[in-house]
Amino acid sequence: MASQPSVLPILDHIVILVSYQTLEELPKLLEESLTVIEGGSHADGRTLNQLIIFPDGVYVELIAFQEDLDPERRKEHRWGSLAEGGIIDWAYTLTDADDFTAIQRRVAEANAETGVTYQDPIPGGRLRPDGVELKWAVSSAQDASLKSLWPGTAPFWCLDRTPRHLRVPYRDEATGGAPAYTTHPSGATGVSRVSVSVPEEEFSLADKIYEGVHGPPVESGPAKKVWPWAVHAGSSEGRQQVTLSAAAAGQERRITITLVGKPDSPSSIQVLPGLTFDFDIE
């Protein structure tokens, strides 16, 4: 049984993989529902992104592989073989990166029989369009053979090595106010829920990882469990929960998110063909 953690994990961002052409078109395509801003190119030269930043400090990363990238280099990337056009992964973070060691230990203890662990953080980064260099380290869950689990089965971790507000400028550091690009035509103010569905045979393994990260679930059933997370802004809007469930027979693994909305927000918005965000209305 995993021990009760002293701090909640913080929801950092959601990853959507798109084609290079779609990435270029998204600001225009989504202008009536979500504000999209340029992110930049990543340090390894394989990917670039655009961002949807919410006032609660969570963001959606719209990521694409470089148009002229060698297919073999793409295959070597964690997300290189995944299908474009949907949510492929999601990340937690921590206010104090030193707390990650305790999470690694708890997950390893909860998965002693299977050998699943979180790898030691690997440095990464990107250059913002204004020339500011961002640095972080990431860690994903891996099995006993050191092979990463399927992306999104469990959250990966994005631990900042430069101040997080440089990577996720959801608040004006000088005034404390919200920048204009965190205001969205749909009224979206943050992420309320993350829902992860995995094949039935993977549910028990994933369950142990989540319990190592979060401690005991706040809701529990034979094929569905729920845990809380926090956000950087300290907001209490929305449910702020992750749900892990076992997919029904014949269904594929899936990650969905539900946004926090205002009374005049729509019930849902289409982000891409086949990808919809629902709203929890505050």
From TrEMBL:
Glyoxalase-like domain: residues covered: 11-202
A Pfam cross-reference name: Glyoxalase_3
Protein name per the record: Glyoxalase-like domain-containing protein
Native source species: Cephalotrichum gorgonifer
